[in-house]
Amino acid sequence: MRALSAGLLTTLVVGLAPASAGAAPLDGPPRTAASGPDRAAKALPALRVRTLASGLDHPWDVKPITGGRLLVTERDSARLLVVDGGTARPVDFPSGSVWVSGETGLMSLEVDPDFADNKRFYTCQGGFTGGGGHDVRVMAWKLKGGAAKPVRKLVGGFPVSSGRHGGCKLLVARNGALLVGTGDAAVGTNPRDLRSLGGKVLRLDRRTGKPWPGNPFAKAGNRNKRYVFTYGHRNVQGLAQRADGSIWSVEQGTYRDDEVNLLKRGGDYGYHPVPGYNEDVPMTDQSLPGEQQAARWRSGDPTLATSGAAWVRGGGGWGGYAGMLAVGVQKGQRVLFLRFDARGRLKGSRTPAALREFGRIRSVVSAPDGDLLLTTDNGDGQDRLLRVSPR
């Protein structure tokens, strides 16, 4: 299999686009929540953007592993790549076992905290079931030499239709639990049906695949329900844990209202597009029975197509960006930085010009040194893996 062209091909240092009160959602906070410039922010440094690998095709996720290497998944080709020393090389991986259709394929990636010892990593991917069926599932693997060896399927049976709204984001939390953000498969009843794994954030033991014992429905008779951490979601594309331990999700909206949510154990996030699949309903429908959790940020109309996200760590020269949530934007073609206070209230946003030059941004990941790793999502072999650092 051929190696991909890679290296430090591009370096950009660009100033910042201004943030203005009352701007369209692409350039500032939503009109419905805490609009206005981020006056509390420190000075914002210029950003340096370097291309680590090019010639990629729909890279969905990236994660650092030992030796300064990076693992990368490609959605449509279902290839797993290692980027190392200026070269991106395919890993021996059973791509033919991945069901690829529409928005579903080889998607999110997570690396075990003990990877240096156990070489384990996890993927969320389309799969084949008996009788010609399909699902979305989470698999555990071991990287041995240049090959990925399957360990086990941790959990599967996430609903699918055409491949639309396949999700699917992974996060190992600091308590060791594996969280999985799923899509609703464009089936209106899935998000609030606790027997369905679609339209949820799930929580499980990454070693055994069993439901996490602290889940809100851990003692339920229905096994799927025991996995549920939160529900009422449309299509979860990002998960990130803040320094204070809180878990946040990024969710794609309909024609309006992409959302950033602060996750509350057992919380209902209010998406219920029935009868049929009625995308005119609110993303968070406060008229539903019970209590619905309001979004902490939403795009308004139109959507930006938000995707992966990571919290910017303090230090390392990040200045006023430190502590902000960096969110990849596909349709809006940028990275959106959002500031929330200690209570989770939106305080402002920034959209750096340096990160408007690369088209659609899929994943945003924090590197061990605090830099941000980005994957683009433009297709046709034109995608890149980028590293962003403050100048």
Task: Summarize this entry quickly.
Helix content is 2%, strand content 39%. It has helices spanning 115-118, 223-227; strands at 11-14, 47-56, 59-64, 70-74, 80-84, 87-90, 106-111, 120-129, 133-144, 147-158, 169-172, 177-181, 200-205, 228-231, 236-241, 247-251, 259-262, 297-298, 306-311, 325-329, 334-340, 346-350, 361-366, 372-376, 383-390.
Please provide a written account of the structure:
This protein is an all-beta fold and 391 residues long. It has one domain: TolB, C-terminal domain (Neuraminidase, 6 Propeller), CATH 2.120.10.30. A hairpin with a 5-residue loop joins β21 and β22. The N terminus is likely disordered.
Give the termini distance in whole angstroms.
Answer: 37 Å
| CATH superfamily label | TolB, C-terminal domain
Q: What low-confidence regions span 5 or more consecutive residues with pLDDT below 50?
A: 1-36
Relative strand content: 35-45%
Radius of gyration: 20 Å
Number of domains: 1
User: Please, how many helices?
Assistant: 2
The strand line-up of the biggest sheet is 1-2-25-24-23
The profile of the biggest β sheet is: 5 strands, antiparallel
Overall mean confidence score, pLDDT: 91
State the name of the first-level CATH class: Mainly Beta
> Structural class of the helices, strands and pairings?
mainly beta
Order of helices and strands: EEEEEEEHEEEEEEHEEEEEEEEEEEE
Q: What level of helicity do the residues show?
A: under 10%
Q: What best-fitting shape do the alpha-carbon axes yield?
A: globular
Total number of beta strands: 25
What CATH calls the topology is Neuraminidase
CATH architecture assignment name: 6 Propeller
